Amino acid sequence: MSNVEFNPKHKEALDSFLLGIPIVKPGKMYGHPAYYVGGKLFASLFMKGVCVKVPESLKDELLKREEIVPFEPMGRKMREWILINRAKSEDYLKDKEIFNASIEFVSSIAGISFKKTK
């Protein structure tokens, strides 16, 4: 993809804590920086935000927050995905509990044990 759009400062913020978790591996998703556990995607930069896979029950709760919307790339609804839109890259550090929940959820699908980080 030649016109991949994402905020590189968001990547720096996410790398600062996600890559410190031993089971998290960096990668790509359609040309965007992404994060995997057990070979399964759990988060990716996308346009001006970050999409994250979460359990459907948590998704409903998170959608009540102003900065979180359903992740619907090209109008396609993604059942277990949200899009977090933060103006300041460092504000993604406030979402560690969401990323931890995502890692726990996706690692359980991948059959990997995960202990939450602070």
Topology:
Blueprint: H1 8-18, E1 24-29, E2 32-37, E3 40-46, E4 49-53, H2 56-62, E5 68-70, E6 81-84, H3 96-110
Antiparallel strand pairs: 1-2, 2-3, 3-4, 4-6, 5-6
Structure notes:
By secondary structure, the protein is of the alpha+beta class. The chain has helices at residues 8-18, 56-62, 96-110; strands at 24-29, 32-37, 40-46, 49-53, 68-70, 81-84. It has a 6-stranded antiparallel beta sheet with strand order 1-2-3-4-6-5. The longest helix has 15 residues, at 96-110. The protein is globular. The termini are far apart. The model has no long low-confidence stretch (mean pLDDT 92).
Give me the Rg, rounded.
13 Å
Q: How many structural units, i.e. domains?
A: 1
CATH class: Alpha Beta
Q: Give the strand order of the largest sheet, numbering strands 1, 2, ... along the chain.
A: 1-2-3-4-6-5
Which shape, going by the Cα principal axes? globular
What is the CA-CA span between the terminal residues? Answer: 35 Å
- How many beta strands in the DSSP annotation? 6
Quick synopsis:
The protein has helices spanning 8-18, 56-62, 96-110; strands at 24-29, 32-37, 40-46, 49-53, 68-70, 81-84. It is an alpha+beta fold and 118 residues long. The chain has a single domain (8-73, 81-109), classed as Yope Regulator, Chain: A, CATH 3.30.1460.
